[in-house]
Amino acid sequence: MSKETQLYIIEDTPSAQFLYKEILNTIDVTFKLFNSGEDFLDFISVNDAGKNSLIIMDIGLPGIDGVALLKKLKAYKNNWKKLPVIAVTAHVMTHEINHYKDQGFTQVIQKPIQVKSFKDLMQHYLQSILIGGTV
């Protein structure tokens, strides 16, 4: 993967953050972790997104949750609102997944994260971004 590809992860749980780091360090992608939606909003208020970027967002964040954070993200007038956003949640009944997709999430991943499935999914998304600039 190109180091121009940037992955942003919003996750408050240290064990999940550790798992993301372990997996992503094996696929040659630059990533930045945020502990809260508020930290991510602070970051995007002063940084623009590259077109080769992907966001992974926990739904159950303390403070501003993933759905509310996505709504704020989609209100931005720069590249942030155009990026694919993957929701991560333990709530994966069909109606819940449909709700998240209706809110604007590109895809929903079930917690706990399955290492091989997550790694394969990241490689797919990152390859798609590099080839076409979007997913």
Mind explaining what this structure looks like?
The protein is an alpha/beta fold and 135 residues long. Helix content is 43%, strand content 19%. The chain has one domain (6-132): 3-Layer(aba) Sandwich (Rossmann fold). It has helices at residues 14-24, 37-46, 66-74, 94-103, 115-132; strands spanning 6-10, 30-34, 53-58, 85-89, 107-110. The protein has a five-stranded parallel sheet, with helices on both faces. Helix 3 links the parallel strand 3 (53-58) and strand 4. The protein starts with 5 loop residues before the first strand and ends with a helix.
Short structural summary:
The protein has 135 residues and is of the alpha/beta class.
